[in-house]
Every structure is written in structure tokens, then in C-alpha cells.
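Dear colleagues,

As part of the handover before I leave the project, I'm documenting each prediction I ran so the next person doesn't have to rerun anything. This entry is a single chain, and its sequence is reproduced below.
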Amino acid sequence: MSLFQSLSVSASGMSAQRFRTELLAQNIANSETTRTEEGGPYRRQDAVFQSAGVSSPFSSAFQSSLDAPNTGVAISEVQIDDKDPILRYMPGHPDADQKGYVAFPNFNPIEEMVDMTNASRSFGANVTAMNAVKDMISKSIDLLRG
């Protein structure tokens, strides 16, 4: 694996974690949403990662000469939570049923914040790996200069 392939792998990890963070922010923003276009309360979404090949213009130019596969990460699917909604007694709410209960998303803010912290740290780890590779490239260039 060349140093540039390492950069591509780290970039794919950063991209996947950014997408995951967007989903988590969407979940937090809709934690009190009782009405969606699909009907019913908002359903929590989560990203599922899978190993995937990565390519960059540089690596694709030299792909035929390289034997090692480029394995990064990609989003395979977005899972929608199928938990039953939480019912709260709020008879004055516009979305209340005949008994006065309103269906809210089954949402745990602690779980979302733990996932957000995990995504942030994974993103940071990819940045650290990318900076290490950039240092290696820079020092290699310095060695070639003499």
C-alpha cells in the first residue's frame, strides 16, 4: 500500500464518520417530532458501515502496478429504528389520539451523544493517521533533496 492509498483510506473513514454524524444530528434535531411525511413520529436512523474499496485519481492511475487492495469504509445502508414510539399523556397536543396520548420518537439522548462522541473520535483518529502519512511524505521528499 502506498502512502497515497493510506490517505484515501483515511479519507473514506472521515467521509463515513461525517455521514454518521449528520444522521446523529438529524436524530437529535427530531427527538420531539411527532408528525412525519410517512406518518407517525420520527424514527431514529443509524448508519451501517462495511469495508469497501477506495480509489483516488492518483491510485487509479497506478492501480495496475499495485497488488494490495485499497480497503476503506463505506456506508452500506441506513437502518431505520423499528422500536415502538413512546406514548406521553398530552390531551391538548394536536397529534393526541382519542385517549390523549401522543406518540414521540423512541429516543435516548445519552445513546446519541455516546455515538456522536464515538464518531468524533473516529474522525479525529483518521485525521491523525492522515497527518502521520503527510509527515512521512514530507520527510521522504526532504530525504530526496539531500
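The CA atoms of residues 89 and 101 lie 4 Å apart. The mean pLDDT is 89.

All the best with the project,
I.
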